[in-house]
């Protein structure tokens, strides 16, 4: 946070000019130069005395820029001495000075000083406000690449890190590194500070290797610049040690580094220097991790005493100490003390509350000031976890009213965080905490008297569970709706959409550059991405200020009521079942037309093993061929096992339709392939097994709330064209230049599939060389009720947004497209059709991301506004796909709902195969296709009789042409 170089530049300029214009300022120049030297050597009080003397002379000479620069440096010295009130008072006085030029570099310096004071007071939101104002001025006056601009990037990164907005913090730190390297070279001491700042965010996000890497880069520089035993080297050793401390197999190495660094730092700083607070805390962490709890407490209490004497009780340092003390008491099984320290950690972040408020007092989180909201959520989680454990060990300690009050307060805190946090990764963490809170509420319900207020509480649990499912997808769709109805002009809507598209594209380019270790490209793209996100941040600020209704609509987060689910999604024959599960428990939320229920099932490691075994049995057709008896048993045993656990006791006899909302790896299972009779009473023929599809129409959803929103959107802007736009891509691996395309085999079944649609239904059909991205992108999707894509898809499970659909490679050389349509591109499109059919491989499979579920290509279409999808859970067979899809559209044309049409198509496929071809009725061939989302019917339009005759005539002409040509060729050969 050193701003001396800018000050020297400005002051030198003014001193040079003023000394020539007015000889009386020579003395002022001398005072200012002496003050600079004293500032650099840490003599801050003496430095201030000389800056003040210089300022008096500059004021008399009306040299206001020089005067204000001296005042700014005095304010800086004050915060360096931890005299924060004096620094803030002086900066506030300068800000009101009539000769301060608004938006000048002097003004930027002043804003930076105020930001630092609020940072040191742990008021990070206010600090960020001033730092961002300073950043705006410096970017305009000095440019984005100027060194002084880079230092403000660092300050902002520190604030975000301390607030636990870690992904945002990393973005600012990475940009600071690029800036400093450009301006100072790769071995400047300033880089040490930045690299050390990056350790916490990387560690917090579980990216331990990157934390070690940045710490080691700091160590390399420190050893080049400083002598052995220097404080900076000790600081870096401490950073590396802390990371090793929590890496398996490196704990002892970490402990040794921390202890060695601590002795150097204690000797240099002295026991009562405020900088020792963090070091005492680190020693406490180290001894807690190695279970030396008495030593841990000794260091932690030293740190706590020093913190409360120097920085006060309401400071982030107290929070960290209390959290480690909670870990100590947790290790000692002192549950009541863990609750106490969790409570104290929470109060350290709430300036408006006394430290003496009792444990059973619940703070009000709606408007009260919070030092670091993300940390407060962690403190609350610590306290809640300890209360849970205490109740488990001593049920008589359970206070129903207090616990319920506590959970509601936690909900209020998370609701506030959802309003304040905008980074998607950090938001996902918040929603995940909400997910865990729901599970706590379920356990709380189980402790209540079931005869009292049962229905109301059950409904609340179901509403809570649904609110935290697929939260980011809901937020994205809500943002699109808010833009539409929030009074935002079209030009701003288009600009926001284009900016989002560009950011997504650059993110994927950066990911690929990192994969191939192209450091030059990586640096270039990282800089570009940071600048784009800065632009997006500014854009959002403008929207919030000028269009408040947009932000109110976007962040309105009311849960979907059970009554809404019952009225809008269910009838007497339809039931909705939603799941959540952890390592030890399965949570089942059931909603019928006239009843609700919540159940908790204890599960053991067998459940997780069976998930993998069942998925293998479904997808590995080779095992079914090589070891048929074993494979049959593996499939049927698991298919019945999951029916018993997930469905059997929840489905009423009158139910014919199921809406299922799975969780985590359950998203990868087709429930229609479950068996409702055990293996012992079933046929060994796959064809005759008692599949769930025989009894129920089944469809899936990401959440009930999303499903209702989708239906409402459909009602507001229906697409009644009932026409199909279909693409059947072709591939020629022999001529492919792209190594990835060279692996794609042609899909003759895809061509037959789309040809069959062309011969039967109205629409636009693109086959072979016409099935290119250049023909897909410009389609007016409003003109088609169904978009059918028969082609390969490529799954990137490491980076799901880099997954793609493989269109035909353009052969003309005129197209600007690469004919890969990526998930991130789909996410930013507007696809106003009723149904997308992804007749491709693994379009519904992908990587699981906390509360968001399976991140797949199919999900990207949902982001694009598609209300309903038919997609696949594994690589599908060409033959069975063509059969199932052909029947599906015929059933759709009859007016059946999507789930009913898909069910009929699958059953028709199974029934029509002869018993000697029983293996082809294995679920591998038919169960991969699932229906997700809205279930309304789309009576696709059959071709008119005239059109059919026309296509028949064309076919006849081609046949005659072929036969005549063949006849003449044969005759010619005979004559030869």
TrEMBL record:
Signal peptide region: 1-21
Pfam families per record: CHAT, TPR_12
Intervals holding TPR repeats: 108-141, 150-183, 277-310
Transmembrane residue ranges: 949-968
Keywords: Membrane, Signal, TPR repeat, Transmembrane, Transmembrane helix
Domain CHAT per the UniProt entry, residue ranges: 649-934
Keyword Transmembrane recorded: yes
Organism superkingdom: Bacteria
Protein name: CHAT domain-containing protein
